[in-house]
Amino acid sequence: MQIQLDKVREEPFSWDLEESIPSASLNRDELLELSPVRWSGTIRATTEGFLLSGRLVYDQTLACTRCLGPIEDHVDSEVHYLVKIRRALPLAGEFQLSEEDFDNLEVESETLDTDQIVLDQLQLNIPMRQLCRPDCAGLCPHCGVNRNLESCECAQDELDPRWQHLAELRDQFASRH
Questions:
Q1: Is 94 within 8 Å of 115 (Cβ atoms)?
Q2: How far apart, in whole angstroms, are the C-alpha atoms of residue 52 and residue 63?
Q3: Which helix (H) or strand (E) holds 164?
Q4: Distance between CA 142 and CA 79 in Å, rounded?
Q5: pTM reported for the whole predicted model
Q6: Are the C-beta atoms of residues 31 and 59 closer than 8 Å to each other?
Q7: Distance between CA atoms of residues 147 and 151, nearest Å
Q8: Is the Cβ–Cβ distance between 43 and 52 less than 8 Å?
Q9: Which residues contact 101 (CB under 8 A, 6 or more apart)?
Q10: Which of 60, 72, 93, 95 is the most buried (most CB within 10 A)?
Q11: Cα separations in angstroms, 34 against 25, 26, 37, 131, 167
Q12: Contact at 8 Å (CB) between 142 and 154?
């Protein structure tokens, strides 16, 4: 959605939309499915710029980090930004961001495209590690069975070959003491 900020100076602008965003467009393997996203909010002029207050409501289906099973997650998230029009490009080089800079959004023209705001918020609302339950047993690394649903006959005491050298060091240390 494109919002013309010069018109917002005269009168606040409100919206209430529902849009379908393909889960594949977010390029996150753990996101299996995304319901239509309800995106509502208001933007109004302030002395410092424009205050955008919005809300995203949708359902997402995620894959459990351990067993890859589906997890239903309802998201109701608020979005707040102070939108400023960038008058001059920043100088080249490094600069330090402050905490309030994360609540600021700079645009280069009098048009605010909210599509990127929605995509960024969707990305932020996908957890880094999602478990179907705290005691999820995961998949067996040998046969691939979901150990939450059935047990397997694989030997559980086999040492991962990547840890072999560390186990040898542990054994040497234990034998000396």
A1: no
A2: 32
A3: helix 164-176
A4: 44
A5: 0.76
A6: no
A7: 5
A8: yes
A9: none
A10: 60
A11: 11, 10, 8, 18, 44
A12: yes
- Give the residue ranges of DSSP H helices in 5-85: 5-8
Hey, what amino acid is at 123? Q
Angle at the Cα of 176 (from 172 to 177), degrees rounded to 5? 120
Tallying the residues shown for the chain, one arrives at 177
Q: Which of 78, 14, 80, 74 is nearest to 52 (CA)?
A: 80
Pair type for strands 31-34 and 50-63: antiparallel
**Which of 10, 139, 13 lies closest to 64, judged by CA?**
139
DSSP for 19-47 reads: E---GGGGT-TTEEEEPPEEEEEEEEE-S
Hey, how many other C-beta atoms are within 10 angstroms of the C-beta on 160?
A: 9
25 burial via Cβ count (<10 Å: 0-12, 13-18, 19+):
exposed
